[in-house]
Design goal:
By secondary structure, the protein is an alpha/beta fold. The chain folds into five domains: 83 residues, DNA polymerase, domain 1, CATH 1.10.150; 64 residues, Orthogonal Bundle (DNA polymerase, domain 1), CATH 1.10.150; 90 residues, Beta Polymerase, domain 2, CATH 3.30.460; 79 residues, DNA polymerase, thumb domain (Beta Polymerase, domain 3, 2-Layer Sandwich); 240 residues, Metal-dependent hydrolases (TIM Barrel), CATH 3.20.20. It has 23 helices and 16 strands. The chain has a seven-stranded parallel β-sheet. Strands 2-4-7-6-5 form a five-stranded mixed β-sheet, sandwiched between helices. Helix 19 runs parallel beside helix 20. The structure holds one DNA strand.
DNA sequence: GCCGTTTTCGGCCCGACTGTTTTCAGTCG
């Protein structure tokens, strides 16, 4: 069993333990361990063989034993025992809003509910409403949740709801009653997919602001409305929460609702060490704890971190992945910003499947203030995308030479998004590739190879001196297509050895390579290139999402080659060929 | 079940809202 499968298994154990009503901290331990396995830098098999599992943060004796069994035998009696207590279908019930382990267990024990379909039946025939602790209203809400689940998956790509979030933000900002307003939550942390949008407002008129929010034209229905918190469902299916607080509470609320949950837990325990209790409103004296330091004065989020002995942690880093240690030591990186980009690669034109001509793409890049732009249309094997053959590609090279002769203030680089064929060979021969300024190598076919074969395929492609950068490493399409099986640490290793750049594909559908792997890549010495994969002039706007990934991956402008000015980028593109 | 610059045992973040209740459990973030 590989690391991903073991992680899934630990998650399953966590859910089963929750159903059993186990100690919540034990459940959390399994969830934490599962997460620790997500981006293991070492091969799990090696860790098991060398009995070094317990070195991993979050894995202790008991879980190490279970993981060892899973890796070596693929089986675990403990899990089989748990599975025997509940039917498999019960898992889908956890996807419903308002249904947790306790209610699911109640429904299962009393009425035999083990699927969404059965839940629907017992809600409609009235038997669910008869259970202790449940009533008519609960049954109605379960039915609503079932409808809602069918309507949308409950998750949204960041790029798809960003404009909506900005619009709502602007609307709230124009209210005279609103003193301050911000989007918090996973949107502020720039997570690739978000489940809801959180707005935090500072106001002296909470009632008016809440009233405005729940009656906003985009609202479909009101889920909850209280004195300080309102939740609504928008017409496009996304849930939006509003928190209204007083001005002096605003930094605390913003911090708390930005999360992540794991980050918050750590923040609060750091406060407790000083004898303070931290909530979404303020610091207060913690009961039953010695007060080690007087309560601090707080005006801003920076002050909250400062009073805990930490440097300010940018929202993108708040995932409890080492930011606390770095903030305490003062070694947090200065994160890259959109304004640092000087150019970009991997753009398409009407020559393949783009919607804008080469001149239109160049014009758009100039308007953005870029110094250079790389054109990388598809290669001939991508027939579906009207990929270029050798002849058309070399014609495009000539066109780009002519463009550069016009001296517009933008330097174009000629490249290709060259298909990596099933066996790892490239779609163009060396003599053609050598005529280009750079090459993006990507997989667009045979997604279902084994992990070993896919990994070898990518590594073989990277071994070519002409492959400048690896495009969308895993081929995933967020919320629609799973990544193909590939050993990412091995690919990172090969990129470091061969001096191949790895792309952050900034398309909101891809955001690939994922932010979770970048700290490891950076440590190995791999350099990053942020590319929009633009198929139209509007596609350049996606660069901001790529920047979000880079920031979440702890990258600085030095880690990303397309922050380099024109005078220095050519040497980077040519480096592998020398 | 994990973890330790107070601890190898006893902690482990904290509050809002809902629904079913007369004081609170469950869920969510």
């Amino acid at each position: 069993m590989n690391a991903a499968a073991v992680g899934d298994t630990l998650e399953e154990i966590a859910i089963l333990l929750e159903l059993k009503g186990e100690n919540p901290f034990k459940i959390r331990a399994y969830t934490r361990a599962a997460r620790a396995l997500e981006t293991l830098s070492e091969d799990l098999g090696t860790l098991v063989a060398e009995k070094r599992l317990e070195e991993v943060d979050g894995i202790g004796k008991a879980i190490a034993e279970k993981v060892t069994l899973l890796v070596t035998t693929g089986k675990l009696e403990y899990l089989d025992g748990l599975r025997g207590e509940f039917p498999a279908g019960i898992f889908e019930l956890f996807e419903l809003q308002g249904l947790g382990a306790k209610k699911i267990k109640l429904l299962y024990d009393k009425l035999g509910v083990d699927s969404v379909a059965k839940l629907k039946a017992v809600c409609e025939d009235g038997s669910a409403g008869q259970l202790p602790g449940l009533g008519e209203k609960s049954a109605t809400n379960f039915l609503k949740a079932i409808v809602q689940r069918e309507k949308c998956a409950g998750q949204f790509r960041l790029g798809d709801i960003s404009a909506l979030a900005d619009g709502m933000l602007d609307d709230l900002r124009t209210l005279p009653e609103v003193d301050q307003v911000q989007v918090a939550g996973s949107h502020r942390r720039r997570k690739e997919v978000v489940g809801d949008l959180d707005f935090i407002v500072a106001t002296r008129h909470p009632k008016e602001v809440s009233e405005y929010f729940v009656s906003h034209p985009l609202v479909d229905s009101i889920l909850a409305q209280g004195a300080t918190k309102s939740s609504v469902l928008l017409k496009n299916g996304i849930q939006c929460d509003l928190r209204v607080v007083k001005a002096d509470e605003f930094p605390f609320a913003l911090n708390y609702f930005t999360g992540s949950k794991e980050h918050n837990v750590k923040m609060r325990s750091l406060a407790l060490e000083r004898g303070w209790s931290l909530n979404e409103y303020r610091f207060s004296v913690a009961e039953g704890r010695p007060l080690r330091e007087p309560l601090p004065e707080v005006q801003t989020e920076e002050d909250i971190y400062g009073s805990l002995g930490l440097a300010y942690v940018e929202p993108e880093l708040r995932e409890d992945r080492g930011e606390f240690a770095a903030a305490a030591e003062g070694t947090l990186p200065k994160l890259i910003e959109l304004a640092n980009l000087r150019g970009t690669f991997h753009c398409h034109t009407t020559a393949s499947d783009g919607r804008a001509t080469l001149d239109e793409m160049a014009e758009a890049a100039l308007e953005l203030g870029l110094q250079y732009l790389g054109i990388a249309d598809h290669s001939k094997s991508s027939v579906q995308a009207h990929g270029l053959d050798e002849k058309r590609l070399l014609e495009q090279v000539k066109t780009i030479e002519e463009y550069n002769a016009r001296d517009t203030g933008l330097r174009l680089f000629s490249g290709t998004e060259c298909d990596i064929k099933k066996d790892g060979s490239l779609d163009f021969p060396e003599e053609v590739l050598s005529r280009l300024d750079y090459v993006v190598a990507s997989v667009h076919s045979a997604f279902t190879l084994s992990e070993t074969a896919m990994t070898e395929r990518l590594i073989k492609a990277m071994s070519s001196p002409h492959v400048t950068m690896l495009g969308h490493l895993t081929g995933r399409l967020l919320l629609s297509r799973e990544p193909y099986q590939v050993n990412i640490p091995a690919v990172i290793e090969a990129a470091a050895e061969t001096g191949t750049l790895i792309e952050i594909n900034a398309s909101p559908y891809r955001l690939d390579m994922d932010w979770r792997w970048w700290p490891q890549a950076k440590e190995k010495g791999v350099r990053c290139v942020i590319n929009p994969d633009a198929h139209s002039t509007r596609g350049f706007q996606d660069l901001v999402f790529g920047i979000g990934v880079a920031r979440k991956g702890w990258l600085t402008r030095e880690d990303v080659v397309n922050t380099l000015p024109l005078g220095k980028i050519e040497a980077v593109l040519a480096a592998k060929r020398h």
